[in-house]
Amino acid sequence: MTIIARSGAGVAVLALAVAAMSAPPGGGGGGGDGGGNGNGGGNAQAPRFFVATPGFANPRDAVHADVLIDRVVYPDGTTIETDRFIFPADVVDMSYAGPIRAFRTMNGPDATVGIPGVAYIEAQDGVPGNISLQDRLLFCDRVEATLGNVNLNDRVHLAAQTSYGFVVSLGTRVWDNSFSLDERPELFIFEEQGNSVLTVQALGDQLQPVGTPVEIRAVDIRSIQPTKVWVGRFGNNGLPQSGTYELKVASIDLNSLGVTSVKYLRITNAVTGGGEMSTDFKLLAIDTSPAEAAQTMAFD
Ligand SMILES: [Ca+2]
Ligand SMILES: [Ca+2]
Ligand SMILES: [Ca+2]
Ligand SMILES: [Ca+2]
């Protein structure tokens, strides 16, 4: 099975290892059917995500509060609980040159996991008119806090068609369970509506590029199984926008990144072929290796 197609620029376009095996085309498209994921019975090989919405019997009522990843279940039934979730533990090298009032973290005003509300890069230093070095440094901390928890309402959002980039250091090194493409992806990129672009590049210990950058595109980002997940969006004043919005996921086996393990990743919304750049995302990693503890000791 051909999973990765290399473009002339040497960039791998993620043809999605696991979900592509199973999800039919057209599973997204923004048609909220509310009646399951519309994927019929063909998705047995995609990881499943189970989400908790404490205090809300209807998950759609939690979109201004907590929408929490509870566990991930791989196709073979292996269940990964939150104690094995690996999040970005440090964020550095923040770049952004777009307009103010556009690049932000956001979370539900009623959230109890993560910092509630909206935070803009330019406002971090107390002077909201421009983006200073201090703004970028402090926004690294804010992004780290946003990406460092299980609340899917707590995301990094760009409300503009321009570029940003930063480097995340995962809490621990993540290893691939198999040196071929397999059904236990290690990286999960959640994207609101699944319509935006992102590039993920593995980095070595000196933060040098290694492996192959992967462009994640709308086609790679699929409805979450076994049931769709709904999140909120928040205006520039931090108040919730009306409605609920589907959060989708791209599941990435480390083979797609051309590495067998990774601790550092560059995330940018720049891609070679263009696309919808107002990316709104969250990142989760799982070490799928059977002997991760020994490997971590050997290599850290
Ligand atoms: Ca500022
Ligand atoms: Ca693999
Ligand atoms: Ca794997
Ligand atoms: Ca989006």
Number of strands: 19
Please report which band the strand proportion falls in: under 5%, 5-15%, 15-25%, 25-35%, 35-45% or over 45%. 25-35%
Give start-end ranges of low-pLDDT stretches.
1-10, 15-43, 292-296
Number of helices: 4
Largest beta-sheet characterization: 9 strands, antiparallel
Rg for CA atoms: 18 Å
How do the SSEs run, as a string of H and E?
EEHEEEEEEEHEEEEEEEEHEEH
Distance between the termini: 34 Å
Q: What structural category characterises the helix and strand content? A: mainly beta
- Work out the helicity level: 10-25%
Heteromolecules bound: calcium ion
Averaged pLDDT: 86
Global shape: globular
What keyword list fits this structure?
seven-stranded mixed sheet; single chain; binds calcium ion; 19 strands; 300 residues; nine-stranded antiparallel sheet; 4 helices; disordered N terminus; mainly beta; globular
